[in-house]
Every structure is written in C-alpha cells, then in structure tokens.
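Hi V.,

You were right to ask for the full record rather than a summary. Here it is.
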Amino acid sequence: MILQKKNTLKRRLLNGFFMSLLMAAAMSAVMTLINTGTGPGFLLRWMRAFCIGFAAAYPTAFLCAPLAQRLTDRLLNTDFPKQNESGTDKI
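Predicted structure:
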C-alpha cells in the first residue's frame, strides 16, 4: 500500500512536470511571438518567458490535475474499472 502511494505521488509529480514543461514552452513561444515578433533576441525573450511560465505552471499543474480529473470523470460519467488480483483491468 505504501509503495503504491509512493508510485502514485511519483507519477503525479512527473506527469505534472512534463505537462507543465510542454505547455509552458508552447504558450511562452506563442505569446512571445505575438507580443514581440521574431527578430534579434527572440530566443532569449522566449527562454525568459518560458522560465517564468514554467515556475507558475508546475505547481499549478500538480495542484489542479486531481480536480481536472474529477471534473472530466463527472462530465463523462465514468467510473474507473476494477482491477483483478493480477493488476489488469476486468472487462
């Protein structure tokens, strides 16, 4: 049980990290491009915006992911399938 909780926490931390990394990169690139255009110093401006965005995005993703999952489950009216003893989903 404790090992499963550790794995769940690791999964949430890594999922939040990668999701926020990709989203912050994409959003900061688009917003930097819209606000300042291309030209000299674009990469430096983008990296600065990305660092600021990622610093905000990572804790937000980690904290909001469970809420987003619950809202999605409610909207889709889904239940998670039960797992059998071998750890595979029952159908």
